[in-house]
Amino acid sequence: MRVLMISDTHVPHRARALPDQVWREVDEADLVIHAGDWVEEAVLDALTDRATVLAGVHGNNDDAAIRSRLPEVAHVEVGGLRIAVVHDTGPAKGREQRCDAHFPGVHVLVFGHSHIPWDTTTPGGIRLLNPGSPTDRRRQPACTYITATVDERGLTDVRLREVTRTGAGRR
């Protein structure tokens, strides 16, 4: 099963739309995970319509309409792999310990908020993944997202992908 992880799309504040490259990944994915800060409800509608399966949460920049449709924390199980999604895990210092305490029994936690790609494993064994942002690189060298595979071995082939600057959604 192919998984796409995105966060912090901030449409239309940081881009007019999601980049074409991301839409191609949506079309290839069996599961799309969005870790919040959609900003525009139309992005949620479009991903809901186009993704095979969508797991998403609201972020701190999302309005009441998005918050009414999405939880603060989402859980999805794929092939025995328990995945949680949340927007903000707090400061980087102490993140692993906080996540172990707040997400017992989870194998993978996808989060956003910082726009900083992150890939670590907690002492308790939770894989922490932040895909960055496909539309707002902030101080990062590139806009990013993550693709991965879930198979009999669990989460495999985890890849941080850079968004090319030629996508239609770029400002």
Detail the topology: elements first, then pairings:
Elements: E1 2-6, H1 20-28, E2 31-34, H2 41-50, E3 54-56, H3 64-69, E4 73-78, E5 81-86, H4 95-102, E6 108-110, E7 118-121, E8 127-130, E9 144-151, E10 154-162
Parallel strand pairs: 1-2, 2-3, 5-6, 6-8
Antiparallel strand pairs: 1-9, 4-5, 7-8, 9-10
Tell me what the structure shows.
The structure is a single chain. The protein has a single domain (2-162), classed as Metallo-dependent phosphatases (Purple Acid Phosphatase, chain A, domain 2). It has four helices and ten strands, in the order E-H-E-H-E-H-E-E-H-E-E-E-E-E. The strands form two sheets. Strands 3-2-1-9-10 form a five-stranded mixed beta sheet, with helices on one face. It has a five-stranded mixed beta sheet with strand order 4-5-6-8-7, with no helix packed on it. With 171 residues, it is of the alpha/beta class. The protein has helices at 20-28, 41-50, 64-69, 95-102; strands at 2-6, 31-34, 54-56, 73-78, 81-86, 108-110, 118-121, 127-130, 144-151, 154-162.
Mean pLDDT: 94
CATH fold name: Purple Acid Phosphatase, chain A, domain 2
Helix amount: 10-25%
Q: What sequence of helices (H) and strands (E) makes up the elements?
A: EHEHEHEEHEEEEE
Determine the N-to-C terminus distance: 32 Å
The CATH architecture: 4-Layer Sandwich
Determine the CATH superfamily: Metallo-dependent phosphatases
Query: Into how many domains do the coordinates divide?
Result: 1
Family: Belongs to the metallophosphoesterase superfamily. YfcE family.
Organism: Allokutzneria oryzae
InterPro entries: Calcineurin-like_PHP_lpxH, Metallo-depent_PP-like, Phosphodiesterase_MJ0936/Vps29
Domain Calcineurin-like phosphoesterase: 1-152
